[in-house]
Design a protein that fits this description.
Elements lengths: L30 H15 L5 E5 L14 E4 L5 H11 L4 E7 H7 L1 H10 L4 E6 L29 H4 L5 H5 L5 E8 L3 H19 L4 E7 L3 H4 L3 H15 L3 E5 L1 H7 L1
Parallel strand pairs: 1-2, 1-3, 3-4, 4-6, 5-6
Antiparallel strand pairs: 5-7
Helix pairs in contact: 1-7, 2-4, 3-4
Length: 259
């Protein structure tokens, strides 16, 4: 018997809603994992032809190149506002934004708070890597206390620059938010939990239950000056204590949906 005679079974393949192209992300960056999880959920729910994505400005600015769904590009920080308009014009479509922390938690903070407070029926995928990744690794609203960046070479001083913005905790206090959770992408167990959360977020939108957001702790080995392995360890050892994983807002209607 030759190798060609051995029966094979495909157990893992590229989602149909994810384009076949070489990534532009840095080695070890977990944006690619997040892309795949979203694409798998779109495929499994059978909503590819009925989905519109909104890309942010930042490392994920080219996210529209990776998904085989309709996509638009928003101005810096304005993805939730654009998604709101699209969802109101096309209420039968699934609308999601894909945003980084430099986009959502800084210039876009007004837009994300407004969308959540109004209970806009959109889904937000929020990548938090604790720095401005695309523009050179400067300090972001999510940068950890003491964390060194290109604009805080001696470390973030909370007495001068304040404390990190904990987006999930903040948005969970708003009445219009139905599902707000934080997950991570630093190991296989958390990746599986992240996918489950993304699926729930889209199910919330399908049921018309209001605003949903999944925050994902993501690595940035290049700007952190670490190897991919070191970056994953840094997420677990440094980021999670500041940004604890968990469910921050699960409305009663969403809890009933999950049963």
């Amino acid at each position: 018997m030759t190798l060609a005679d051995v029966p094979t079974k495909v157990v893992y393949s590229r989602p149909e809603s994810l384009d076949d192209r070489v990534t532009h992300y840095c080695p070890g960056c977990t944006h690619g994992i997040a892309h795949r999880l979203v694409a798998e959920v779109l495929d499994e729910m059978g909503i590819v032809e009925n989905t519109i994505g909104v890309a942010s400005v930042g490392c994920s600015v080219f996210s529209y190149n990776y998904f085989n769904v309709d996509f638009v590009e928003a101005a810096h920080g304005r993805a939730p506002a654009m998604a709101t308009g699209i969802k109101r014009v096309y209420p039968d479509h699934f609308v999601f934004t894909y945003q980084g922390d430099g986009d959502l938690a800084s210039i876009g903070m007004g837009e994300i708070v407004g969308a959540a407070s109004r209970g806009e029926k959109i889904t937000v995928i929020f990548l938090n890597n604790a720095n401005y990744g695309m523009t050179g690794g400067q300090m972001a609203p999510t940068t950890l206390p003491g964390q060194k960046t290109t604009s805080s070479p001696t470390g973030r001083d909370v007495n001068r620059q304040g404390y990190p913005i904990q987006t999930a905790e903040l948005l969970s206090t708003l009445e219009g938010a139905s599902y707000v959770v934080r997950r991570s992408l630093h190991n296989s167990r958390e990746v599986r939990r992240a996918k489950q959360a993304i699926r729930t977020a889209f199910e919330v939108q399908k049921a018309g239950l209001g605003f949903s957001l999944v925050e994902l702790l993501s690595t940035c080995p290049t700007n952190w000056a670490m190897t991919p392995v070191e970056a994953r360890e840094w997420v677990e050892e440094r980021m999670i204590p500041v940004y604890p994983l968990g469910d921050y807002k699960v409305s009663a209607a969403v809890a009933a949906l999950k049963k």
